[in-house]
Amino acid sequence: MEQAINLSGTSDQDAYTRLRAELEKGAGVEIVVTLDNAGTGVLSLMQEHLWGEFEWHPLSVQPASFQFLLKKLPAKVARRAIGEFLGADHRRCDESFIKLENAAQNQDVSGAKLHFAQFNLAMEQHFAMEEEVFFPAFERATGMTQGPTMVMRMEHRQMRGLLAQAAQALTQGKLEGVSRAGSTLMILMRQHNIKEEQMLYPMADQHLGKDVDGLVRSMQKLAPVSK
Q1: Torsion sign over Cα 27, 2, 65, 18
Q2: Is 64 within 8 Å of 36 (Cβ atoms)?
Q3: pTM of model > 0.85
Q4: Percent helix, strand and coil across the chain, each rounded to 5?
Q5: Measuring CA to CA, which residue among 223, 222, 224, 208 is closest to residue 79?
Q6: Do 94 and 206 reside in the same domain of the chain?
Q7: How many domains are there within the chain?
Q8: Would 227 be classed as within a structural domain?
């Protein structure tokens, strides 16, 4: 069950101690954490002591106010993999999109604005993890700069264009435009995700070998994208 904890003004160590106590309550714990910073210090402590036991996703980026979703994993993962980590993030983005689409279809303008902001941030964070951390590492390891990562970057640009269309429609209060752009975006997302999960991620886990776990740490620690 999701709960909310405001840790603004709390030291990194105290925030970590509080969150660890909540996670120790068992699998399935979900916490919306509010901080007055980008959470780097807290997350470093969690990675040091609780690696493989949690997920950490940005939900909102506002001046001096950051919200994250902290989730307890069903079971500890000793060594994380590209396919496991980024595949789970695909599903998180899909779930966020469904909330947006439901709000748009129900003509819920305020709900659509909230869920679009969260979905857009989730997508941009996913793109950044791949483009800034994963793709460069894959290209260095394989020497493939004009292969699958080039195609994935191109498709990221296409998805960003559709996100911009949805944002414009939402600004104008045209929820049918949000749904229209969203429907096209979902088709592209599904095709894109299949390519990554069935081809690129397995290749990466094979070629990157012992470096994979460290790359996942780096992706998880990437500062929240402000768009």
Answers
A1: negative
A2: yes
A3: yes
A4: 65, 10, 20
A5: 208
A6: yes
A7: 2
A8: no
